[in-house]
Design brief:
The complex is a heterodimer of chains A (406) and B (292). Chain A has helices at 4-28, 51-70, 90-103, 115-127, 163-170, 189-204, 223-232, 244-255, 274-277, 298-311, 317-336, 343-354, and strands spanning 38-44, 79-85, 108-110, 132-134, 150-152, 180-186, 208-215, 236-240, 262-265, 286-289, 357-359, 362-364, 377-382, 385-390. Chain A is of the alpha/beta class. In chain A, β13 and β14 form a beta hairpin. Classes of the chains: A alpha/beta (406), B mainly alpha (292).
């Protein structure tokens, strides 16, 4: 137990720190609006469970601020990020946004990472009537809370990831179209959402489900699941996977020498370490992706170039989602011509509801609940490289179907 | 039906691995009446060392056994001498749960510190290789793990039955006071026996790492099923644990066909409850005094 003396000392140190902080921020403040910098408040999980993606999102926001500022800022004002660490805790994230909006008087706020943190922080922003564009809340529950101010800055929610693939499969001539499909999904709303989104569409299109397995997140032995799928001889195998489970399942399927006509797994195949993890036997594996460095959208080239110059490596999906969030907010600010708390925020919200925005992940638009209206691109491993194959207007290579043996 | 045959093959391979993983656990209890919660943490530690060995040195993970087996043996002797021998005999079984629980937490924490919480898997060139046998596919890595189990359990059996150390160890298991009366240094024997148990953890962890994802907290996932196996097999009996492991591995694999992954895992706990209710001394070991 700390002694009373020690506690006083801490309190004094804290007081000193707070005063000096207030003094610092007081110097730069000029009562909102005007010629000072536009302050953007963000709370991110820089430590704790989500620290890895959290830092990725931070880099994306930093890249956005730098690129905007280098080209003259927003409305002629520089963009200044104020980032707090919520330690991956839902309680902290609420306090952080209260502080950013209430006492720090930021002009704009943007979202944190992960569904678990997006929902409570969106509620705070909603109470203050602030526009809330977020890079990471893709689960269904985000859009059923009745938020009017929330927008998910990505092409699609989990259930819509495979839409382009579903269209492609169902458009095949009847004699080539797969007849049976096997699904294995992790017991997780996101991973399961991707697989079940495709399952619903294929079932409606007449592709019979022959295996439907759900496994707990801690599963490490996939031998039996793979045995079921292999024994069913399904034409299509779909994995609602994160990373390691996808790798394990693919290896287990290969051990049983199961050769489907089409194999699609979420998340895992787009990981940079994927090919090595399954011994380079990647031929023909499909995956939905929300972002590709090679996607030919106009602003993407600039983003990849400048990001690589700033951080020394190319951006991944987390970084791109944060950057997209920045792009959406910037588009609204430019169009409406203001960036401050108060009436301006409602104008920004109305503008985003009514318009489409060009971003590094394509053209985005939203429904009333803030759910994006697009679908993910589909990538395929062809000849040891992963390439965009769907939709047709952005493809780098033709889709290979039926897939070669792996 | 090919799915049933395939599941039987997978179940037997899995059961063999379970037998190896559980061998040490039942040995500790037999020798010292110690419940070693940290056994699965040592398994994961060995798996991490094998992964690290392959990742950093580029050598086959099986070669890491040359280092980890002696290392774990010494660690086992040290752990018995420095921690467990100091517990009071009356409350040994109960207190050993607490002590080894602390050891497990420490190992988990250190693994997280050294290797982060990221999930790892050894990337082997032959990781997805397999061959066909009577209509069932057998994966090479699973067969290697099974082979490791057979070899080390066989070696353990010979050691227990054919060497004077084995006799001393069995005498210590059967009746410590009588063993002491005929001149066996039971303290030293118990220390070596504990080291032997931990050495099986080194082999087991390496076998596990060949075809599985590892992460620091994975040991909590394993300790439950392993405890169930040694209770069903009869506490203290290595052959009993092996028989129970094969049976439960097979049952788990076959139950996955109708029940799915989540429910098939419960077979261990159902077996545990059934054993405790019907035959608490276990189904395979006979009376404790006669084991081995």
């Amino acid at each position: 137990m700390p002694s009373p003396y020690r506690r006083t000392r801490w309190a004094a140190a804290l007081l000193l720190m707070t005063t000096s902080l207030t003094a610092c921020s007081g110097g730069g403040e000029d009562g909102g609006g005007g010629d000072g910098p536009i302050k953007v408040g963000i709370s991110l999980p820089l430590t704790g469970d989500f620290s890895e993606p959290g830092q990725g999102v931070q880099q994306g926001y930093e890249a956005w601020a730098k690129i905007v500022n280098d080209s003259g800022g927003l409305l002629g004002r520089q963009v200044e990020l104020k980032i707090l660490d919520d330690q991956s805790s839902a309680d902290r994230v609420v306090a952080d946004y209260e502080q950013l909006i209430g006492s720090d008087q930021v002009d704009l706020v943007v979202g944190p990472f992960s569904t678990r943190l997006v929902v409570p922080s969106a509620r705070v922003a909603s109470e203050y009537g602030m526009l809330f564009v977020e890079p990471a809340g893709a689960a269904a529950e985000v859009f059923t809370q009745g938020f009017k101010n929330l927008f998910y800055a990505a092409p699609a929610v989990a259930n819509d990831h495979y839409n382009h693939l579903a269209e492609y499969i169902l458009a095949l001539p009847a004699d080539q179209r797969p007849k049976t499909a096997a699904y294995a999904a992790m017991d997780d709303p996101f991973a399961q959402g991707t697989a079940y989104g495709l399952k619903a569409k294929l079932e409606a299109g007449g592709v019979k489900t022959v295996v439907d397995e759900v496994y707990p997140p801690n599963t490490t032995d996939f031998g039996s699941i793979a045995a079921k799928i292999a024994a069913s001889k399904a034409d299509v195998v779909v994995g609602g996977s994160q990373y390691q489970d996808g790798v394990n399942l693919i290896v287990a399927l290969q051990q049983l020498n199961y050769q489907p006509k089409l194999a699609a797994f979420s998340t895992a195949p787009t990981n940079p370490e994927f090919a090595a993890a399954i011994g380079n036997k990647t031929e023909g594996i499909l995956a939905p992706t929300g972002y590709s460095q090679d996607a030919p959208y106009p602003s993407n080239k600039e983003f990849v170039e400048k990001y690589t110059a700033q951080f020394g490596k190319a951006p991944e999906e987390d970084q791109a989602n944060a950057y997209t969030t920045g792009q959406v907010v910037a588009a609204a600010v430019k169009a409406v011509g203001c960036a401050e708390q108060g009436d301006c925020q409602q104008k920004l919200i109305d503008w985003v509801h009514a318009n489409k925005v060009e971003t590094v992940v394509g053209t985005l638009s939203w429904d009333d609940t803030g759910k994006p209206q697009g679908a993910h691109m589909i990538q395929q491993w062809v000849g040891g490289d992963i390439k965009i194959v769907l939709p047709a207007d952005v493809k780098e290579a033709a889709i290979v179907y039926p897939k070669p043996a792996w | 039906m090919s799915l049933v045959l395939q599941s039987v093959v997978l179940g037997l391979l899995l059961g063999g691995l379970y037998a190896l993983l559980a061998a040490g656990l039942t040995l500790y209890f037999g020798i010292m009446r110690v419940v070693m919660i940290a056994h699965s943490a040592f398994l994961i530690l060995a798996a991490y060392l094998a992964w690290w060995w392959h990742e950093r040195l580029g050598l086959d993970p099986l070669l890491s056994l040359v280092v980890t087996v002696p290392l774990f043996f010494l660690a086992g002797v040290a752990m018995q001498r420095l921690l467990l021998a100091r517990l009071r005999a009356v409350t040994l079984t109960m207190m050993s749960v607490l002590v080894t629980f602390a050891v497990a937490l420490t190992i988990e924490g250190l693994l997280g510190y050294a290797f982060t919480g990221t999930q790892r898997r050894i990337q082997l060139g032959y990781g997805s290789a397999g061959f066909e046998l009577f209509g069932a596919r057998i994966a090479v890595v699973k067969l290697i793990a099974f082979g490791l189990a057979v070899v080390s359990l066989g070696a353990l059996y010979l050691l227990m039955k054919r060497t004077s150390f084995g006799w001393a160890l069995r005498a210590t298991i059967q009746h410590r006071d009588a063993a002491r009366l005929v001149g066996i240094d039971t303290e030293r024997t118990a220390g070596y026996g504990f080291g032997l148990g931990l050495a099986t953890a080194a082999v087991g962890g390496t076998a596990l790492s060949l075809d599985s994802t590892i992460y620091p907290s994975l040991h909590w996932h394993w300790i439950g099923p392993l405890m169930a196996i040694i209770v069903v097999g009869g506490l203290g009996s290595v052959p009993g644990a092996a028989a129970a492991a094969l049976l439960l591995g097979l049952a788990q694999s076959l139950l996955q066909i109708p029940l799915g992954t989540t429910w098939a895992q419960t077979v261990f706990y159902v077996a545990l409850f059934a054993t405790l209710a019907v035959r608490p001394q276990g189904f395979f070991g006979g009376r404790l005094a006669q084991r081995f």
